[in-house]
Amino acid sequence: KAGVTQTPRYLIKTRGQQVTLSCSPISGHRSVSWYQQTPGQGLQFLFEYFSETQRNKGNFPGRFSGRQFSNSRSEMNVSTLELGDSALYLCASSLLGQEQETQYFGPGTRLLVL
Amino acid sequence: AQSVTQLGSHVSVSEGALVLLRCNYSSSVPPYLFWYVQYPNQGLQLLLKYTSAATLVKGINGFEAEFKKSETSFHLTKPSAHMSDAAEYFCAVSDRGGGFKTIFGAGTRLFVKA
């Protein structure tokens, strides 16, 4: 079974632009979570989607948004990029979205904002 | 509110020596606890998890962790370090109910000396 895939793997943008990142979960998984990883702040929870609904949200500004499609694929969008948005964005999927389940992580999208 | 504290941002051990990575958590209810490993330029991989069954949890690659409620700790150990264990390790906590909103510790980078 294929793992979690994220596209693109690397991205360079300039301040003020917007960006869309994509995540394809493991086949059959219904929950997708997004995390931001930076050297200064570590791994921070962005949001979780389950059956096309945002179920949980971390403490990020409204510039960060996401959605999930009927096939469980998810996208996250960051508008009006800032230098501080440079990070590794990780996506994780789980089968039923239950907290004790194993989350399977993708390799991440590394975003550099210039 | 949940939180996770990993003691020591860097730990160095010799090959064959005991690995001990420390994690303390704070949670208002009995939590789910996880240890993840991250190799360079990769996503996270689950090592083991505590979901309120046995307090001593065995994971992959010879790692294990013991849940100690009285000490609010979930330290990760491995009897004998191998060069391939060099990576970054993250302790994480997730409350029960309501889906994923996993909180990660700051991470501990493990160095293994030959």
Describe this structure in words.
- The complex is a heterodimer of chains A (114) and B (114).
- With 114 residues, chain A is mainly β.
- Chain A has no helices and 11 strands.
- In chain A, strands 2, 4, 5, 6, 9, 10 and 11 form a 7-stranded mixed beta sheet that branches. A 4-stranded antiparallel beta sheet of chain A has the order 1-3-8-7, with no helix packed on it.
- Chain A has strands spanning 5-7, 10-13, 19-24, 31-38, 42-50, 53-57, 64-68, 74-78, 87-94, 104-105, 109-113.
- In chain A, 0% of the residues lie in helices and 53% in strands.
- Chain A is globular.
- The mean pLDDT of chain A is 94.
- Chain B has 114 residues and is mostly beta strands.
- Helices cover 0% and strands 54% of the residues of chain B.
- Chain B has strands at 3-7, 10-14, 19-26, 32-38, 44-50, 56-58, 64-68, 73-78, 87-94, 103-104, 108-113.
- Classes of the chains: A mainly beta (114), B mainly beta (114).
- Chain A binds chain B through residues 4, 31, 33, 35, 42-45, 48, 50, 55-56, 58, 90, 92, 94, 97-100, 102-108, and chain B through 32, 36, 41-46, 49, 51, 90, 94-107.
Give a quick rundown of the structure:
The complex is a heterodimer of chains A (114) and B (114). Chain A contains no helices and 11 strands. Chain A is an all-beta fold and 114 residues long.
Give keywords:
heterodimer, A: 114 residues, mainly beta, seven-stranded mixed β-sheet, four-stranded antiparallel β-sheet, 11 strands, globular, B: 114 residues, six-stranded mixed β-sheet, five-stranded antiparallel β-sheet
